Amino acid sequence: MKRRPPAAGASQRYHNRLARQYDAVYDDAYWRWHDRLTWDAIKPYLPHNAAASCCDLGCGTGKWGLKLLKSGFATTFVDHSPAMIEQTRQKLHALGAKAKRATLLVADIVDLSLLACDPFDLILAMGDPLSICADTSAAVAEMRRICKAGGIVIATADNKLAAAEYFLQRGDLDGLESFLRTGRTHWLTRDRQEQFELTTFTPGELVRLFERGGFQVLRLTGKTILPIRAYKQLLDQEGAFARLLRLESELAKDTTSAARASHLQIIAKKI
């Protein structure tokens, strides 16, 4: 298994510290609903060839890459946090022989030079590694380089239109103007040494980023359009889990609804 230590930084420090508690942070009814929504979007793009290879960029503790591995695909897990990769490594023990088809790599998505060109049929970049990285164009270029011709990338990013509310709530017009001009803000942690920068996108900006990077955009949706996280008690109602999934999916058919969502999800094909 290849490993290379990434450059130190605020994001790495934050994710290294959080790694052991990461799964617990995202363990409630809302995140189970959110994960079902995400997997339902991924499943139609799973490779038809059992010999296909997949990659999970910004894998964290391995949630999506492990699903790919369990589905029978050789999977490469990539994260800039060694502690996150270690959490993934520990989970592989339960997969028996399938664990042999996993490759773990500590690397930043802006520099995937340890990976060969064109090996992957499907690349996931969930959890907004595009927003976290230092150079979004370089990240998309690296995604294209490691993606097979006709291969699929599914990625998420922070929505600029949703993030603007933070500045409005604080009456910070100077901050709002700067943010809307640049799309740049920072992760809101108390420890300044962990306040890494974030890049946000409007739906149109995210589409253009991938189109300029040599992809055909197949679909862009908001995630989530309905603000279920603020009303997660609804998920306790009988039948609400499935009903809200259905409503969210119906709303996502109208691409303009993505502007309302807290995050954006793009599905793109290498051309």
Characterise this structure.
The longest helix is centred in the N-terminal third of the chain and has 14 residues, at 29-42. The radius of gyration is 18 Å and the shape is globular. The protein has one domain: Vaccinia Virus protein VP39 (Rossmann fold, 3-Layer(aba) Sandwich). It is α/β, with parallel strands linked by helices. It is 38% helix and 22% strand. It has eleven helices and nine strands. Strands 1, 2, 3, 4, 5, 6, 7, 8 and 9 form a nine-stranded mixed β-sheet that branches. The protein has helices at 10-18, 22-25, 29-42, 63-70, 82-92, 129-132, 136-146, 160-169, 173-182, 203-212, 240-252, and strands at 53-57, 74-79, 102-106, 120-125, 147-159, 184-186, 197-201, 215-222, 263-270. The two termini are 30 Å apart.
